[in-house]
Amino acid sequence: MRSGLTHRRAIIVGAGQAGLAVAAALIGLGFRPQQEFVVVDAAATDRQRSWASRWHSMRLLSDARHSTLPVRPLPVDPHEHPRADEIANYLDQVQHTLGVDPFWGLRVVGVERVGHGSVLQLQTAEGDVQTRNVVCATGAATHPRIPAWAQQLRVPGVVLHSAHYQFPRQVPTGRVLIVGGGNSGVQLARELSTSHEVTLAVRTRRPHRPARTFPVHARAGSSWLGRPPAVQPVFGDSYHALRHAGVAVAPAVTGADGGQVTFADGSTLAPDSVILATGYDPGEDWLPAEATAARSRPAMTGLPGLFVAGIPAHSRPGADTLAGVSRDAAVIARTIADRP
User: Fold this and answer.
1) Can you spell out the DSSP letters for 282-314?
2) At what angle do helices 17-28 and 325-338 cross, to 10 degrees?
3) Distance in angstroms (rounded) separating the CA atoms of residues 249 and 177
4) Contacts of 235 (CB under 8 A, 6+ apart)
5) 211 in helix, strand or coil?
6) What is the pLDDT of residues 214-242, one digit of tens each?
7) How far apart are CA 272 and CA 197, in angstroms?
8) Partner residues linked to 300 by β-bridges
9) Which of 9, 184, 225, 281 has a 20 to 30 A CA-CA distance from 199?
């Protein structure tokens, strides 16, 4: 185990927006980074944060006013929708402002309670370390979600999850199927429509809202505990606008056989390339079962001293946004400060 991790009051797992938000909240209560708490991350460097790997033209749905952490403003026009690379640079600046020096390249694989006391044992790929508080800040969009039928797909071009898409030149000329009718699928359909023949497969038709309404609708929906989330709208382009731009809108994909996919209405398509805008699973797979068995409040878990920041399933709608994660961070920091 690396030196500098032991005898810390708290360990934050994840150096992205959620982890930095919790770090900022702890510092605001007088905690000293690297001395009383540390941040660890599985990425090799800060340039491998998730924002740094998003496609080049990606812009946030929220404008700069609603895309910051309280510790530092975003240095762009407040009405502008920041690009993903601008957010990656912004998080580097926040990290520097806070004086946080993460332990990079350290993968966490589990956490458990030591006996019946208040000590937790954090299990990592390099060994175990004990602490009194652990914060899971590993993100709501960590692991690309790949549909089972994609394993049967054989196309002449490429098959990419949106996590690995960067720019149109990545996709050979021809017919492109984009699977997923959420905001990522809609944005990619618009971008590729100028250079490719695009079909967008949509499982659930989502209502459309103007981009300026995103902060309100991102927080809308059901409460955090035990109720299914409402269908989230798409912002910016509507399906009608995409059709006007030449994009074909098809039903959900139900299966694939070699180079052909089948849609829910029985129709088929032989695409040259496929982009899977099928979403992500959160980075909570290392949490124990008791972490979700008896949640009493947002960001809390059933294991004393274990907290989750920035994952809506453990909190409220909008917790995975830059503006929304600070609520989780404030609750977690106050609870850590009050724990013996």
Assistant:
1) -S-TTS-THHHHS--STTB-SSTTEEE-S-GGG
2) 40
3) 10
4) 61, 183, 208, 209, 210, 211, 213, 214, 217
5) helix
6) 665 455 444 444 444 566 778 878 999 99
7) 10
8) 307
9) 281
